[in-house]
Amino acid sequence: MRRAIYPxxxxxxxxxxxxxxxxxxxxxxxxxxxILVNPEKKPxxxxxxxxxxxxxxxxxxxxxxxxxxxxSFRGLLVNYAVAQQANAIVRGxxxxxxxxxxLQMALMNRRLEPTIETVFMMPAETYSYVSSRLVKExxxxxxxxxxxxxxxxxxxxxEKLKRA
Length: 164
Ligand code: PNS
Known about the structure:
Bound molecules: 4'-phosphopantetheine
Oligomer: single chain
Number of strands: 5
Radius of gyration: 15 Å
């Protein structure tokens, strides 16, 4: 049983994240999409909202024999990964600029917990510039999000803005 953790903030999930999940499914029997609970950050969506949206979106994605579930975690990622009996951590690398930070995290995680491997995956080129941070910026400035995030995310972002 090959189980991987795909950790992140997912605030919000982008089409780039979904692309990595689909690719990860070719390598793993199970992927746990794990949202970091970070009390220091002021997120756009709450953990519950992010979890709910991910659950809904991932239901609609075909993953073959791979099981994908959504969870959240706090504290050290490697401790969480061990508790989930995972073998690997999946991270997406879009460009060289991601590499330095990702390498540092992967090596620190390896030092903390040598039994867990980090697997880097590249999303489709179409998503190489897509990040949650830019999605939020474009949205807040009134730009179109079509093709960058699933339609459900854009809808929920608009609903949230109306309620604010
Ligand atoms: O999508 P993000 O925000 O870039 O994801 C970052 C994440 C969640 C992978 C990273 O912040 C993390 O693993 N945090 C948990 C705390 C931890 O284990 N820190 C030590 C990592 S070297």
